[in-house]
Amino acid sequence: MRETMTEMIRLARPHFDEQEEAAAARVLRSGMLVQGPEVAAFERETLAVIGAGSEAHAVAVSNGTSALELALAALDVGPGDEVIVPSVTWPSPGNAVLLRGAVPVVCDVLPTTFNLDPKAVARLLTPKTRAIIAVDQFGVPADIAGIRRVAGDVPIVEDAACAIGSTIDGASCGLQGDLGTFSFHPRKVVTTGEGGMVLSSRPELVARVRTLRNHGQVEVGVFREAGPNERMSEMQAAIGRVQMSKLAEILRVRRAVGDEIRAGLALAWQKIPEGATVNYQTLGFVLPKPASGTRRAARDALVKVLREDGVEANILSYALHRLPPFAAHAVNTARELPYADAIVESGVALPIHTRMSSSDVAKVIDVVRRRAEFALGSTDVTL
Ligand SMILES: Cc1ncc(COP(=O)(O)O)c(C=O)c1O
Asked: Which of 317, 380, 327 is nearest to 103 (CA)?
């Protein structure tokens, strides 16, 4: 007897077709592989697609992590400085701070949006605070206006790695801080394989990032300061241009899928703040505190059974203050980051991508409803 294998519904899948293939081939045939017209066009077209005003500029770089490093370098963050970072995140923002020789001050997040809590930020500000990195976690806009109110003129870097296409009060994520960054990693809504971008409306910061990404050259052969090579290649940019031209369609499908799954499952979903539209880069929820055993054990068990049933669930994120490179710098004790711990130990990501069919969506809802029955009806992170 032949067994039929159920195909796994993947957590994420890039949205590629023959247009991206043609774009990559066009660059290969041109013979011009770096620092050519594709990168410049990708920068211009991205600004247009996200509705940036004429004062905004974009600098395409090698990935979202280098975008953060260059943003901090442009702000002259260095030894002796403190930079406030949210605890719930992929480690890049914290790594970028450490690699500048500065101290990442790890801050708790809100149990609702999973983003920086402005009140917690206010408690961590010191005369040494040189910058704040606000992550738009999983594509949900951070409360940058709220952070601005407590932080005065401390520069804010908006880490919009996950948030291209998301908006707050009608304005694009990535444009809310003094500098913003995107990632074009394959798990992101728009991808160039590896890739990133720095955005800013402050000309002096934009010029500095442009210089720094290219060995510290202000023009060919004029080296002003030591700089890395963090350039985006022409092939990546050509692929990115096609991807960016599809952003509206990608968002339409992702929002339809995300809205349907969220509406079909009464779980403690990441909250979308009033005035925001999101790209559903990740579809995340938290489990209630289990009656017995640890949060982490209950979550890991759920992820395992969902996968056994063909739904590629995953853990949601990491708690920076629990990772070895940052433990020494977590100025708070564990009890002062309760929400970050709860979210990271009980968070689950469900599949979302543009290739999901309506039967895939129905299957995700059905499997999660059966396997996570204990979590239905819970509304928040319980401490
Ligand atoms: C919040 C955040 N910042 C930065 C990055 C880094 O992006 P990249 O993988 O392009 O270096 C990621 C990647 O997942 C991220 O989630």
From this structure: 327
Q: Are residues 97 and 121 in the same domain?
A: yes
Same domain, yes or no: 98 and 215: yes
Assign residue 300 the CATH number of its domain: 3.90.1150.10
Ligand 1 pocket test, pick from 66, 132, 162 with the greatest ligand atom count within 8 Å of Cβ, gives: 162
- Domain membership of residue 214 (yes or no) is yes
What is the number of domains present in the chain? Answer: 2
Confidence at residue 2, expressed as pLDDT on a 0 to 100 scale: 44
Ligand 1 centroid from CA 258, angstroms: 21
Strands 347-350 and 283-286: antiparallel
Q: 230: left (phi > 0), else alpha (psi -120 to 50), else beta?
A: alpha
Same domain, 26 and 91: yes
Q: For residue 195, report the distance from its CA to the centre of ligand 1, in Å.
A: 10
Domain containing residue 125: 18-245
Ligand 1: which of 62, 83, 87, 92 to mutate, judged by most atoms within 8 Å of the beta carbon? 92
Treating both helix axes as pointing N-terminal to C-terminal, what angle do 203-213 and 64-74 enclose, rounded to 10 degrees?
Answer: 120
Dmax over CA atoms of the chain, in Å, equals 72
* DSSP secondary structure letter of residue 247: H
Mutate to test the pocket of ligand 1, among 109, 185, 232 (most ligand atoms within 8 A of CB): 185
Cα–ligand 1 centroid distance for 220 (angstroms)? 30
pTM for the model stands at 0.96
Task: Say if 3 falls within a structural domain.
Answer: no
Same domain, 104 and 140: yes
pLDDT tens for residues 62-90? Answer: 999 999 999 999 999 999 999 999 999 99
The pLDDT tens digits of the residues spanning 261-313 come to: 999 999 999 999 999 999 999 999 999 999 899 999 999 999 999 999 999 99
Q: Is residue 151 part of a domain?
A: yes
